Structures are given as C-alpha cells and as structure tokens.
Amino acid sequence: MSKNKERHYKAEKVIERMGQKLNRQIAGSLLACVHCGNCTDSCHYVHANPGDPTYAPAYKADRVRKLFKKHFDWTGRVIPWWVNAGTVETDEDLEELKDIVFGKCTNCRRCSINCPMGVDYATFNRMARGLLVSVGVQPEGVAVVSKDQWEIGNQMGVLKEDYLDTLEWMEEELQDELDDPTVKIPVDKMDADVVYSINPREVKYDPRSIADAAKIFHVAGENWTMPSEGWDMTNFGLFSGDDALGGSVASRLYEKVTELNGKTLVISECGHGYRSTRCEGPNWAKQDVPYVMESSVDTMIRYIKEGRIKVDKTKNTTPVTFHDSCNNARSCGLFEEPRELLNLVCTDFREMYPNRSENYCCTGGGGAMSMSEYTPQRLKSGLKKAEQLKESGAEVVVTSCHNCVDGLGDVIRHYEIDMKVTQLVHLVANALVIEEKVSVPVEAPVEAEASAVVAEAEGLPFAGKVVLVADDEPDQVEFIATVLEDNGATILRASNGEEALALARSEKPDLLTLDLGMPGRDVGEVYETIRADEDLKDLRVCVITGRPELRKLIYDRSVKKPEGYLDKPVDEDRLVLNVRKVLELT
Ligand code: SF4
Ligand code: SF4
After folding, report:
1. Which one of 87, 213, 367, 476 is most buried, counting C-beta atoms within 10 A?
2. What is the rounded CA–CA span in Å between residue 38 and residue 41?
3. Burial category of 279 from C-beta neighbours within 10 Å (exposed 0-12, middle 13-18, buried 19 and up)
4. CA 131 to centroid of ligand 1, rounded, Å
C-alpha cells in the first residue's frame, strides 16, 4: 500500500468512527454554537495569548465541528461554504488536529459553563482525542501512559512489589510516629467498611499522603483496607478519549472491591480519579456499582462530624487558599465540601477569585502533564492561574487533586511565586488530636469492687469502668457485653431508650454504647436528654448501629456529638480499639 493510501486510510477511519461516537449530547453541542464569542474570555489559553484567535474555544471547536458538518449534517452537504464544512485527508491534517485537541485545550470545561447555548466543547474535544488515538495519532506521552495503564494496571507503571513495599514502609513510619506497633495499613482485608484507592503518584512521589490517610483511618478506628491489585483509581481513558481503556481500568477497581466485599470505596484526593471512578466509570465499564463511592474529603468531614477524630485548627495557622480542581468542582459539584473541611482544620483560609465553577485550570488538566511537547504553551497558559495565586495573599495553595498539585507546582516555579502546594489529607493529619497514652491507675482494693480490682490487677484495659450497653437485639448485647467484660468492664444492659436513660441516671456508667434503631422512645430524644443532664455530663457515648441512615437522629442535633461511632457488624478488635479511644485509655 502506498504511503498516500495509508494516510487516507487513517483519515477515513477517523470519519467512520466519528459516526459511531456521535450521540445526542455531542451532536447538540456540535450544532448549537452561534459564534457569539461569549466563551472566548473563559479560556486560560486565550488570556495568555492575546490577539491569537486560534486559542479561542469556538475556533478550536470549529476544527472538529467542520468534520461533523461535512459528513453528518445536511447543511454541510447543501451549503458547505456557508457552514464552514471540511474534512481531514492526510496525516498532516490529523497531526494538525492533534495539536489542537491535545495541545490547546485541557478539557477544563470552563468555556462550557459560560456558553449560553449549552455547547460543551470539552466533551467533543475528548471525542476527537479518542478518534485520533484509535488510529495511533497521539502525543508520545499519551501512548506511554495508556500502555502502562493497560499492561501494568496503573498510570505510572508502578510494580505490585513496589506498591506493597511502599505501604509497608509507610506502616512502619506510622508505627514509629505514633509509637504504636499495632498501627496497620491492611491489605486485601475482607469485609472492610472502607476500601481505600489511590493515585499511583502517591506511591511514586508522595507516599506521605498514604501515611497521612492511614493515620486518619487508624485514629478514626475505621475497619479499612487497601487492595493489592486494581488499586489505581485514576483513569487515563478520561484524557485520551479511549472509552475501552476507561471501562477496563474502572472495572478492575470495581471488581476488586466486590471481591473484598468492601462496603464503601473511598477515593483519595484526585479530581480526574474521582470523576472517572465515581461519575464516568460505570458508563464506560457498562456495569452497576453496588456499593457507595465517595471522595476522601467527604470521609474526613464525616469523621470529624461524628466525633471519630478530633482536630485542632490552631495546628495549621499558615494562610491558605484553595484551588478547585476542574474535574472535582465543575464536573462533579464538589464545591463546598473542601471548604467546610478547610475551615475545620485551618485558622486562615482565603478564597482565590474567581473560584468554584469559575476557577481557572491549573494548566495540568486533560492529561497535559504527560504531553511534554506542549509544555512551553502549557506554562504560558498559566498566566491567569499565577495572577489568581498571587492575589490570594496566601502562602500555601491547597487542592484536592494530585494532578493539580503538579500543575500548580509548575505554575509556581515558572512564575516565581513564593508559595507551596499541599492537599487536605496533610492538613487534616497535621491537625489531628491524638490522646497521649495513659496508664490505668490501680486503685486500693475495696471489697465491693473486688471483680474490678482483679481485672485491674490482671492489667485488663477496661478495669473499673462501667459500660451501659443499650441495644434491642439480645445477640448484640451479649456480644458487646462479653467482649467488654473479658476486658475488665462491668456491664449494665438496656433494651430501649427509656431503660438506658433510667440506668444512666441511677448507675452513672462511664460509657453508653447506643444502638440507634431501638423501639420505644426516639433514640435521638433520649440522646439529647442525656446531653442536657448536668449529672451525666461525664458520660461518654459510642453509637453502634447497623442503620447508618439513622445517624441524623443524633448528628443533626445541636448538642455535643457522641465520642465514638461504629457500624455494625462490629468485630472484637474494632470494638476494643474504639472503646479504648472513647474512654481515652490509649
Ligand atoms: S461555544 Fe457558546 S459561547 Fe462560545 S461562541 Fe459558541 S455559542 Fe458562543
Ligand atoms: S475546555 Fe478549557 S481549555 Fe478547553 S477551550 Fe474550553 S476553557 Fe479552554
């Protein structure tokens, strides 16, 4: 086959596959543009290249639109000169298109939200990328990263042994830091409440983010694990436009969580990982995901609100600002959660402007960090971001995205800004209040407390403590009572809220374990009554429930939150660990 024919073949394939990729949403965006120019100023490339119309979103979009007009829309057949219909024929044409869809757009979607006609250029720009990738026309970095994700299972080609070694290393670091050899980073633990997935960048360049997350899970008393395989929640299919890669990568993670019988998949701080895994992945993989998927930002807020971790914001006093990742914010609506968390763990949070859905891209979106041939124009496009960072007056920029950490780092270096980049997990870990280990005092023997004294003498952790177990399921009561008695506690039992309240008042226990689904008086009311009772101000409460939807009965009330929280079913280790924490014996 001659060279010319081969070139023609690739262009033919692009057009043919475009017909297969068109859907109502893409066709709508390809048809709707009225060339009003409203989107022009939205694009960070435009700000950095004044006077160059080739960076305008509508101009770039027209390079893809002309193919649609020519081959799939009647107007292109009847009045092609009027609607600017055109085609691609040679490799040079495809290369030119590649330099636009990969090199002049980060798929940030800022122009999409500023278009009065609802044109989502980023969506069909991604489609165009996928068409070019399907015929092998792509930046070298896109080919390399895609290959690693197809063949090794993660974007950075991290080998399984290196991943597991890093987890082990971080576990040891944490054991030293907390002076506690029982701290674990569990791998492939079955039936965990949380399966934690990460970005391979964390293994390669920021292992401390794994250790900090592990520290938070440990202090929260979480029943958690990390998968040994399929652990990469990033997905280069989002950037390359390759839906087959997207589906394969998402499936590996979904299937691993299912195999482990995990209850919640927690996605570490990564914008495109969150969007790919939680929002787009089920479509690409064509499968339903039967468990909850959430960002670690939501998990950390939950732990603080439920009293599972305590934080002291005075540990983070440096002025910080927040950069919204395009994928987290514009595409997935995570606007307020990171701000809520920042205000809980930092004393000086300053917004940058514009923010939320109007924030500008870090320059590293859309896989741009892997396309070194476009680095000069990418760095130049960071002009707007650099202005935003400087004007914030902050010393640290926080972001919930590993990609943005690198993009912002490049902008900071290129524009010589005196600023550091960090993520929420580091700030939360730094703000954690971890109770000092205290020894249990051995009191003088008193006849009436003989059993407690024996327990103390045997060094049992709950010796001398009285625990009121309130649950309407006799099996649960017996399980909790037996475990705590074996560890030295004296047990009282209640099967409804009224009984629990009466026993709390008459016996003054140290701890109440409280089921939320008991019959009779509303457990939320009982809880509020306990919190309002001056005589019970020292009573600690650990919620133990199999119905997390009832948490609002307690957590929505404006009274002091419970000191502990556990999801059923509880196992012995988790119960003891959490009760120790609640009683502040650790
Ligand atoms: S994409 Fe929307 S905002 Fe931009 S020129 Fe077209 S119609 Fe106007
Ligand atoms: S998606 Fe973002 S980078 Fe691409 S044209 Fe629109 S504003 Fe510019």
Report:
1. 213
2. 7
3. middle
4. 23
H or E segment and range at residue 10 = helix 3-21
Tokens of residue 59, six digits = 């101009």
The pLDDT, as a whole number, for residue 445 is: 43
Distances (CA, A) of 71 to 23, 27, 64, 399, 573: 15, 12, 11, 42, 65
Map 405-462 to HEC letters.
HHHHHHHHHHCCCCCEEECHHHHHHHHECCCCCCCCCCCCCCHHHHHHHHHHHCCCCC
The confidence score (pLDDT) of residue 549 equals: 65
Question: Could you give the CA distance from residue 341 to residue 346 in angstroms, rounded to a whole number?
Answer: 8
Predicted confidence at residue 585, as pLDDT, reads: 58
Exposed e or buried b per residue across 371-390, where buried means at least 16 C-beta atoms within 10 angstroms of its C-beta: beebeebbbebbbbbbbbbe
pLDDT < 50 positions in the chain: 1-4, 7, 438-448, 586
Centroid of ligand 2 to alpha carbon of 60 (angstroms): 9
What is the three-class DSSP state of 212?
helix
CA distance 7 to 12: 9
Nearest CA to ligand 1 atom 7: 33
Ligand lying closest to the C-alpha of residue 330: 2
Determine the Cα–Cα distance for residues 488 and 226; give it in Å rounded to an integer: 33
DSSP letter assigned to residue 220 = T
CA distances from 208 to 183, 217, 315, 419 (A): 15, 14, 18, 20
CA–CA distance, 552 with 527 (Å, rounded to integer): 12
SS3 344: helix
Q: Which numbered ligand comes closest to the C-alpha of 109?
A: 2
Which H helix or E strand runs over 197? strand 194-197
Pair 155, 386: CB distance under 8 Å? no
In one-letter notation, the amino acid at residue 272 is H
519: left (phi over 0), alpha (psi -120 to 50) or beta: beta
Give residue 453's pLDDT: 53
pLDDT of residue 575: 86
Ligand 1 atom 4: residue of nearest CA: 39
Q: What residues contact 341, with CB distance under 8 A and at least 6 apart?
A: 297, 300, 301, 304, 424, 428
Q: Which amino acid residue places its CA nearest to atom 6 of ligand 2?
A: 111
- Determine the residue of 38, 43, 121 to mutate for testing ligand 1's pocket, defined as the one with the most ligand atoms within 8 A of the Cβ atom: 38
Using alpha carbons, select from 277, 254, 269 the residue that is nearest to residue 216. Answer: 269
Q: Which of 111, 324, 360, 377 to mutate to test the pocket of ligand 2 (most atoms within 8 A of CB)?
A: 111
Looking at residue 2, its pLDDT comes to: 46
Which of 59, 106, 330 most suits a substitution to test ligand 2, by most atoms within 8 Å of the C-beta?
Answer: 106
Identify the CA nearest to 29 among candidates 70, 62, 53: 62
Q: d(Cα 181, Cα 170) in Å, to the nearest integer?
A: 13
Rounded to a whole number of angstroms, the distance between the first and last alpha carbons of the chain is: 75
* Distance from C-alpha of 121 to C-alpha of 282, rounded to nearest angstrom: 23
Q: How many residues does the chain have?
A: 586
